[in-house]
Design brief:
The protein is mainly beta. Among the domains are: 183 residues, Jelly Rolls (Sandwich), CATH 2.60.120.260; 126 residues, Jelly Rolls, CATH 2.60.120.260; 201 residues, Immunoglobulin-like (Sandwich); 95 residues, Immunoglobulins (Immunoglobulin-like); 95 residues, Sandwich (Immunoglobulin-like); 79 residues, Golgi alpha-mannosidase II (Immunoglobulin-like), CATH 2.60.40.1180. It has 13 helices and 74 strands. Strands 25, 27, 30, 31, 32, 33, 36, 37 and 38 form a 9-stranded mixed beta sheet that branches. An 8-stranded parallel beta sheet has the order 63-62-61-60-59-66-65-64. Strands 2, 5, 7, 8, 9, 11 and 12 form a 7-stranded antiparallel beta sheet that branches. Strand 41 and strand 42 form a beta hairpin. Helix 5 runs parallel beside helix 7 and helix 12 packs parallel to helix 13. The longest helix is centred in the last third of the chain and has 21 residues. It starts with a helix and ends with a strand.
């Protein structure tokens, strides 16, 4: 960075009155970590150069590495821009800068993190954004090791001015990244061992047979415990080692964990032993320049340390150990990578223990302050005046502690708490000398309460430290609420609470009302003691204070104080459970259970928040609910726009007191609810004499009397035949039209919905009439699934590179392995060799022999002739040469029975500058012109954010799936009537994945994708190293084979209500012949009670739990299934 720029930045910072607030509520002042920001609260930062129009940044809840928010940064073009975060703290005790990032759209840019000191000294590092393309990753840079220094020979982090994230564009195109959880770290024992490797002694094994942060050779069978696995009975250090039992098998560190600096020397060492003398082992480090590139060492029967030294030629180093002897076993342990030429004594860089599990909160302390909470008959008016009578008799909570050293705060703060039969009330007076500063900040606040003076109230109704609620507000009345119903899990909490304050001459006030409807009371103990802490956050973090000393961050429920003499009987009138809450076909429905101990009469109404944030409320419905009874509520609530809505229900008693307010539930509208034009059943027709088409109508019988459908067929913009008109009924409407008079070609089926002659909606679809072919793979648009030669098929398989490597044996071994998992279709990368293209037939033959099909990725045809890839040894050298190769290949293999489809470009959305939409459409058109009988699409769209980009360049979509991150994109593709093949990463050694997923993590990702509408699963990549995970794939394969007939049916939008405590449980209901199938998933890391109401099932006679699913409690009259779903689990049922 230019020294003038640094000086300008320092000047800018020095004249700013306020840049940021880092509230203790967002920090853990742990000895090991100094938080900069976790993004949960707003803070000020700069984007430089100032006024850069094409650089945008904002806080968002779209994705986060932890908590609810991250910072999203987007820029376009090829100019250098940066994010600057002021941070004037002493970080001299810390040796590492760490942060989390995820790259949604990568344009080959380089990110440069800086630590800028007040002296002008700069610590700078380099990151390629590719590292974050597959999901959130954590990056760590050690002081004076991974940073390059400018302005001094040694970094001094005692006087930091700011942090900077610079972005230097390598190519044109949009870049979108997310940052989260920026912090400084230090070694847990206060020293730096110098070991750059993660999990260096293999003690951390989230999957029992695989060490986190390490992987084996990709693709190649055999697999299993005797081939490559953790050995918990043999170890040099700790309790575990890694055992290799077959020649050619490799142990390698994931490259992103070992960050090095170019042109510096590093030494890798590892302890090894064998079951035989004279065992050959290939020892190398990718990223280091080592004489001969490798070192063959001889390993004996005793533990011995082996090492290799080299100069870094990259910013990463990945040690690789390969067993080279036949009939030998090799054990590895205590790996170390350090700078310099010397082999240093082994030391793990961090404390390495068994599986990384979240720790429970400590036991509630008995040393906190205790006061009596007074009950009042008349609650205060929430106006900030503090002149209500109830405050006169309330006990004053004073003597607030400073948060950094447990001394009494010099800033006088007094709080009081009272309660009545409706709510808990809090009042605070905060003495303040600089009142004008408080006013100025409040006036300029746009997204408070963060970034202003505020009060944070923490309440634990159970008073046991197991769960709590967090309410924050400032004198302006800006609010924030969140619940922690289990350790370390933050849940955004929507509730109707109020706050108001006033700024006085000598300070400011705050008054808060928290109704009992703000709490989930079903799990609350009847306790007369309440855990509470009231904390004051200032613009100057050193002035932060708390009534009960929090021992670090505010989020320490074990350190809360206690309010005594609370009367839990006041909660009874609010004990209502929301058994179900849903929206379907123009109606909002709910089931409420009364647990108050007496009959209750309520006026119940629904509120929904539209995608444009508009709030819609229904008229109240009066209901009397007997004690212990259930009440069903149904209210018309038409929603005719696509998008994601939020729905909740509230209930008010005869005195106007709100007794019930639910949390919002998400409602996804994936198509126009009044008119969903499904179009033709198939995307093309050959020998058929007629074609079927359909639409779905979301209107009742009365309205349908005034509705009509006008449909017509067009070719080249001209209408073929007449315009047809037909009456409509609620639900599915199907009609047929003849094909025998249509010539071959492409047609548009157009549908217009009319109400009393007024056009309400117009939609269309494209279908083709083709001559018959030997092999035909069609798309069923009604269900968005594939049909192979007339038979529906659910593609389930893996991405594989063995064809590219020209390894037929590995390919046939893989097919034998995947056949056991009931796999059906795989994706193969052919690479860039024309010779491989000519010999692809033998790979297709092997697939057909095993009963499996193949997507062929043609990436080499369309990419390797480009100038960018001229270094490739075997490639096409011109677009004309590649086009001729494409013609020969497609013509030769389009009728092969194992061919399932074609893929054009691999990951084109990662390179939008090279493969824009127009180029993708061109490639798609070339393939479809040669073979219109098989689907065609780009493969592996890791950064696809807009389904429309593929609308004219694909018949389907290969997109990743991670829970929550891709839900919206799935809805977009469903609206295009294109099948989705979900790609959930399953191999721990690829890209930025920290480790292999667990069996349960893989299960919920795969089934969440299916529930969201995936018409296939293609996992990246064959195969995982862990036997536990592979066995799960085999189990899921059996399940999918059994469920496929139901999954491969038209989407009839069968009505299923899912009632659970939050949105972690979802499901779908499918029908096949005379049976219904319920498929559900719980993505939460805790068990959840759930009720499924099967509205679409006319009558339940029996329910069969499939595979390992728990048997539910069935209420046949209510048509409900009740059960407790285990954490990260699925539930599969067959219903007659």
């Amino acid at each position: 960075m230019n020294s003038k720029i640094i000086n300008v930045l320092i000047c800018i910072v020095s004249i700013l009155i306020f840049f940021g607030v880092f509230a203790p509520s967002a920090f853990s002042k742990d000895l090991e970590t100094l938080k900069v920001t976790d993004m949960e609260e707003d803070f000020k930062y700069m984007v430089l150069p100032p006024g850069k129009a094409n650089a945008k940044s904002l806080f968002c809840t779209e994705t986060a590495s932890q908590g609810n928010r991250s910072l999203r940064f987007e820029c376009a073009g090829n100019e250098r821009v940066g994010l600057y975060i002021p941070f004037e703290k002493d970080a001299s005790d810390y040796d590492t800068l760490a942060f989390d990032f995820y790259c949604e759209s990568n344009n080959d840019a380089t990110m440069m993190p800086y630590v800028i000191e007040k002296t002008g000294t700069v610590s700078r590092a380099y990151v390629n954004l590719r590292e974050g393309r597959d999901g959130w990753v954590t990056l760590r840079f050690k002081k004076d090791k991974n940073f390059k220094l400018r302005g001094a020979t040694k970094a001094d982090w005692s006087k930091i001015e700011m942090l900077n994230f610079d972005f230097i564009r390598g190519t044109r195109g949009k870049m979108i990244i997310y940052l989260d959880n920026i912090r400084f770290e230090k070694s847990k024992d206060g020293s730096d061992s110098g070991n750059l490797l993660y999990n260096s002694s293999f003690e951390k094994t989230t999957n029992p047979s695989v060490p986190d942060g390490w992987h084996r050779d990709l693709h190649y069978p055999p697999f299993g415990k005797d081939i490559w696995s953790i050995d918990d009975k043999v170890a040099f250090h700790g309790k575990k080692s890694l055992r290799i039992g077959l020649k050619g098998k490799t142990l390698a560190a994931m490259e992103q964990h070992a960050r090095v600096s170019k042109e510096q020397e590093y030494t890798f060492s590892i302890y090894m032993k064998s079951d035989k003398d004279d065992t050959n082992v290939d020892l190398r480090v990718n990223g280091l320049k080592i004489p001969g590139r490798e070192k063959i060492v001889i390993v004996g029967k005793e533990w011995k340390r082996y090492s290799v030294t080299g100069e870094a030629i990259s910013t990463y180093a990945s040690p690789r150990i390969t067993l080279e002897s036949e009939n030998a076993a090799l054990w590895c342990d205590a790996a170390q990578l350090v700078d310099g030429k010397d082999v240093k004594p082994y030391k793990a860089p961090v404390e390495e223990t068994d599986n990384d599990t979240k720790k429970a909160y400590p036991k509630k302390s008995e040393d906190g302050p205790v006061v009596e909470i007074k009950e009042t008959e008349d609650g205060p008016v929430i106006d900030g005046k503090l002149d209500d009578k109830c405050w006169e008799t309330a006990v004053t909570m004073k003597d607030f502690f400073k948060c950094d050293d447990k001394s009494l705060s010099p800033d006088k703060t007094e709080a009081k708490v009272v309660f009545d039969d409706q709510a808990i009330y809090v009042s605070v007076f905060a003495e303040e000398k600089n009142v004008e500063s408080v006013k100025k900040t409040l006036d300029s606040s746009k997204h408070g309460p963060w970034g202003t003076d505020l009060i944070e109230v923490f309440i634990d109704l159970n008073n046991d430290g197991s769960s709590y609620y967090h309410f924050a507000a400032n004198p302006k009345g800006e609010k924030y609420a969140v619940s922690f119903t289990e350790p370390n899990k933050r849940i955004t909490w929507d509730c109707d609470w109020s706050a108001a304050g006033k700024v006085l001459k000598n300070g400011w006030t705050l008054e808060i009302k928290i109704p009992y409807t703000c709490f989930a009371l079903s799990g609350i103990n009847k306790n007369t003691d309440i855990g509470i802490n009231i904390c004051r956050t200032s613009l100057e973090p050193t002035r932060n204070s708390a009534w009960s000393y929090p021992g670090g961050g505010f989020h320490t429920p074990w350190a809360f104080g206690t309010l005594k003499e609370f009367r839990p009987e006041v909660l009874k009138g609010f004990l209502f459970d929301i058994v179900s809450l849903n929206w379907s076909r123009g109606k909002a429905t709910a089931t409420v259970q009364n647990k108050t101990g007496s009959d209750a009469a309520l006026n119940l109404s629904f509120e929904i928040i539209a995608p444009d944030t508009q709030k819609i409320s229904t008229k109240p419905v009066y209901k009397t609910v007997n004690d212990g009874a259930l009440a069903d509520i149904e209210v018309p609530l038409p929603l005719e726009k696509d998008g994601l809505y939020k729905l909740r229900i509230s209930g008010v008693d005869k005195n106007g007191i709100k007794r019930l307010v639910s949390q919002y539930r998400k409602v996804k509208i994936s198509g126009n609810t009044l008119f969903d034009f499904s179009g033709t059943e198939l995307d093309f027709y050959t020998n058929e004499q007629t074609a079927k088409a359909r639409c779905l109508i979301g209107a009742d019988n009365k309205r349908c009397k005034n509705l009509k459908l006008c449909w017509s067929i067009q070719k080249d913009g001209e209408t073929i035949g007449k315009i047809n008109t037909m009456p409509l009924k609620p639900g599915i409407n199907v009609w047929e039209f003849p094909l025998n008079k249509l010539s071959n070609g492409s047609y548009r089926l157009i549908g217009e919905l009319l109400e009393n002659s007024t056009v309400l909606n117009k939609q269309e679809c494209v279908f083709r009439k083709l001559p018959p072919a030997k092999q035909e793979v069609r798309i069923n648009r009604w269900g968005q699934f594939f049909v192979y030669n007339g038979t529906p098929i659910f593609p389930y398989g893996f991405y594989d590179n063995n064809v590219d490597y020209d390894n037929l044996k590995a390919w046939t071994d893989m097919l034998a392995d995947t056949q056991k998992a009931d796999c059906t279709v795989h994706m193969v990368y052919m690479g860039n060799s024309p010779r491989i293209h000519e010999e692809i037939g033998k790979y297709l033959d092997a697939a057909e022999k095993s009963g499996q099909k193949v997507w062929i990725c043609l990436s080499g045809m369309f990419a390797w002739h480009l100038e960018k890839y001229k270094s490739q040894r075997l490639r096409y050298h011109s677009e004309e040469e590649a086009a001729e190769g494409l013609r020969k290949l497609v013509s030769k293999y389009k009728d092969h029975p194992a061919l399932f489809g074609w893929c054009t470009i691999d990951e084109p959305s990662n390179r939008p500058n090279i493969f824009p939409a127009a180029v993708m459409e061109k490639y798609y058109g070339q393939v479809k012109a040669l073979d219109p009988y098989h689907p065609c699409a780009p493969s592996h769209q890791t950064h696809m954010t807009d389904a429309k980009l593929l609308d004219a360049a694909a018949d389907c979509a290969f997109i990743p799936y991670l829970i929550g991150r891709f839900d919206y994109l799935f809805q977009e593709f469903k609206s295009l009537k294109e099948p989705i093949i979900a790609n959930t990463p399953c191999y721990g050694g690829v890209g930025s994945i920290m480790r292999e997923p667990t069996a349960s993590e893989q299960r919920i990702n795969m089934y969440s994708a299916v529930i969201n509408g995936a018409g296939g699963l293609c996992l990246y990549t064959y195969r995982p190293a862990g036997t536990e995970l592979w066995n799960e794939f085999i189990e899921i394969g059996k399940e999918l084979k059994y469920l496929s007939p139901a999954l491969l049916t038209p989407d009839d939008k069968l009505d299923l209500e899912v009632s659970a405590t939050d949105d972690n449980v979802s499901g779908i209901l499918k029908k096949y012949r005379d049976k219904y199938y319920l498929i559900a998933v719980n993505t939460a890391s805790r068990p959840i009670d759930v009720v499924f109401r099967l509205n679409a099932v006319p009558e339940i006679s029996s329910v069969k739990a499939l595979f390992k699913t728990k048997a539910p409690k069935v209420e046949k009259k209510l048509k409900t299934l009740k059960l407790t779903m285990d954490k990260q689990s699925t539930a599969l049922y067959e219903i007659r």
